[in-house]
Amino acid sequence: MFKNSKTILWLVIAIITVAGVSYGLSRNSTSPEKQELIKIGVIISLTGKGADRGESAMQGLNLALKKINDRELLGDKELKLILEDAPIIGGGEKAISAFNKLTAIDKVTAIIGPMGSPTAVPVAPIVDATKTPTIVHTASAKKVTENNEYVFRLWTTSRNYVDAILPQIQKNSYKKIAAITAQADNTIDQLNILKQEIDTIGASFVLDEKASAEETDFHTQLAKLKQTDADALFINLHEGQIGLIGRQIKELGLEIPIFTNSVMSQVEIEVSSGEGLEGVWYPRFAGYDNKAKQDFISEYGEEPTNPETAAAAHDALLILAQAISQSGTNGEKIKDYIYSHTFDVSIGQLKFRENGDAILPLKIKTVKDGKIVDLVE
Predict the structure, then answer these.
(1) Distance of CA 239 to CAs 52, 53, 129, 187, 335, Å?
(2) Any idea what the CATH number is for the domain that residue 99 is in?
(3) Of 51, 114, 287, 302, which one has the greatest count of Cβ atoms within 10 A?
């Protein structure tokens, strides 16, 4: 999975950090006593399902650190990242423990993460009490930013995704939709919003099957699919599951148009054994611009496995660095600065709404010849 030596090096550093050693990059690390130390906590998925997204996030963070130092964005201050591992699936309790450690023991100025709705949703209610600005990425469940002043989301929401899916369903003339959905906040959110809106385009659901977020065998749900007259299948599952169900669909010889959610990635294609997800389409935020793409390729030799996740982590750290450089390390001042400013980052000009959600562009992606590309019509 790790395509070059730089990626391996940073992962080793990350693992050491998770074991209890923090790391920082500075221009004058030999004289830390002369520098103000700014600590940023990172709750990231380095193990379990979603580790590939954690790897991409690390690439984004490391590239952002390099840019912050090269531009002297924080002057002579030393920026240190303190990492805590919380797997996307099943890592909710770890994420809560990580947040409490970072705020109470490490005394971080701000936090990036957790990654994914299953870990971000449990943490969101405890953020405001600490007044710690927290930028969550790769989490779309609406609960993440509900009733929280200090939680920002640098990722698109379930509502955004449905707004992109509906016109594509209409273009493809799907009328009878089957859905197989993981029982988790973000996937259930997306399904419920889609259900509320589907009749506005003259379509309806003919199958609504659920699966646990850890399920690996979907033959029962697919058997029920075969008994319907559905003309499209919505695979609304989690990391690893999309690839597995794609493989099982291929093995069963089922031929039906498929669309899925933003969890889709090149890793899912590999899990599906290649052809199982050919032609699948899904919504995704546009990710970084071409200049940033070239920055990643220059640094790592190729694009990250999950470019959007890399971009979100990269931009989250740059946003925090800019806010800290202009407003200091007080949590309330950082929060107010983020709400009131527009940021020029790798995904373009970015501003946060009053509820903490970023305004992000979306694209429809598809799988063609085993690769993820923009859908061109």
Answers:
(1) 10, 10, 31, 12, 31
(2) 3.40.50.2300
(3) 114
pLDDT (average), residues 80-85: 96
The answer to whether 136 and 143 are in contact (CB under 8 A) is: no
Q: What is the pLDDT of residues 277-312, one digit of tens each?
A: 999 999 988 788 899 999 999 999 999 988 989 999
Round to whole Å and give the CA distance between 41 and 289: 26
Which segments of the chain does DSSP mark as H helices, in order? 5-18, 51-70, 92-104, 117-123, 158-171, 185-197, 219-226, 241-251, 266-271, 290-300, 307-327, 331-340
pLDDT value of residue 377: 62
Q: What is the DSSP string of 11-74?
A: HHHHHHHHTT--EEE-TTTT-GGGS-EEEEEEEE--SSTTHHHHHHHHHHHHHHHHHHHHTTTT
- The conformation of residue 355, written as its DSSP 8-state character, comes to T
Q: Looking at the structure, do residues 171 and 79 belong to the same domain, yes or no?
A: no
164 shares its domain with 274: yes
Q: What is the pLDDT of residue 57?
A: 96
Query: What is 93-114 written as a DSSP string?
Result: HHHHHHHHHHHHTS--SEEEEE
User: Can you spell out the DSSP letters for 294-305?
Assistant: HHHHHHHSS--S
Question: For the chain, what is the mean pLDDT?
Answer: 89
Q: How many domains does the chain have?
A: 2
DSSP 8-state assignment for residue 77: P
Placement of tokens 């600065």 in the chain: 337
Domain containing 186 equals 158-284+363-374
